[in-house]
Design brief:
single chain; mainly beta; OB fold (Dihydrolipoamide Acetyltransferase, E2P); 2 domains; 7-stranded antiparallel beta sheet; 4-stranded antiparallel beta sheet; 1 helix; 5% helix; 53% strand; elongated; biotin; Biotin_lipoyl; Single_hybrid_motif
Amino acid sequence: MDINYKVTVNNTTSYNSKASEANEIDAVEITPSQFHVLKASQPYTAEIVSSDFLAKTYGVKVNGNLYNVSIATPLDSLIKEMGFEVGASKQVNVIKAPMPGLILEMSVSVGQEVKENDCLLILEAMKMENSFLSPRAGIIKSISAKKGDAVEKGQLLIEFE
């Protein structure tokens, strides 16, 4: 089965390439990152100067000219069409009460820098104490509740910068 790849050069030029087309290129490895390439009787000197394997992006110097190249598989394209990005994560900027309850302890203050998994507050709900840990590192922008406050489900409690 021949896989189609979408190759983008310098974020401007895109073209589709089949895996079988790689067999048409005669490349000799000079060093692990340098190659002598012969394509359609034209010689080229190619060097891989940078690579991000997870993002599938590469800095390639061909005959002294630097090109930024990204390669996408059919799966990468499908994921992007669905509105997702490979390796992307959603950043949480607010903490809301998941249920009605009573604030037993507020462990942070406005302007405080917190690390991921630092305790932010303790909410008592249905006779149980629920600790809220920071979902990310950041700085506390605002606090909308204080110790002793009764809060409703969905009420904003803490906002990050």
